[in-house]
């Protein structure tokens, strides 16, 4: 069932500020304290100056996530921008899964928006000004960019009470997924000779590949070099933050087995590039949509990187497209029902990606289309490492079992080929 009257669900009208958190809680306190501490007048002064003195003011509402506070800036001529201001870190809550600092993360996001705005038709906000200095006149790193009138897809589907796994009606859902596939394929069409996050040189306006924000390492010239560092980082984070029973489980060793499996199943093994652009955090939680679930904006782009094809070929997150561990057998009715719903959607989205790639001529030049890898064992092995980061033993145990099945399967297939 879809609720049709959703005017209040769109854009800044849906922002609820600190009410997103329990009053008196740590997150609520953080939001209200930060709102009072930021020098918002400095931001309106900067914004007005950038538009030849046209007056502006902030709207009363704001949106807040784990890392940023967003407020709408309205100019007297009707133009709207947003100020996206970085919140103080809460490592006690979020840990340190991303090794690079806030400044580097902001630089990657700014570079990604500038790159996509200049080179694609992907709807991203235009960046008008920014500062990565936490000691600036505003009191925190910020980005001033265009306001896009839309709502995060996951929030709108909840507000409209959509059917399970659906974004709007069947037609709206299909169009939404087709647009996602087009965005994913467009990103993948850009090639680089190294693996790492995307950066922009302020002096030359050139884009380049540098250290990757999760591991803090790189760039790399081979997939296996990247995977080795990614696996080691996952182990280190687990040791620092996972519960003792997770660390003492056999599935604690998933990252070690991951490296070996990628050497067996990975596309091209330790070979070099080219490597395609991907957004590691691509999903419905970072897509702004209108009332019909048409994508009008892509946000939160600090996950953009040049990556091995197994990374590029991952399904978008929070879209009902979660793959099961290879060989996993479910017995619970609810899980079986979920798998029955998901399997045709996985194939449908893969076909959408394949169609988008064909439309762009990808594969004609000899490169491997990402659609060919989306349901591959290699892409699934990477998914296992990504799930490992949740530090849930029942999740890890399922993937450990799947990893061992893949390992046994590879050994048996080799034995059968031996004369």
TrEMBL record:
It holds the Pfam family APH. Residues 109-308 form the Aminoglycoside phosphotransferase domain. Coiled coil: none annotated. This is Aminoglycoside phosphotransferase domain-containing protein. It comes from Cercophora scortea.
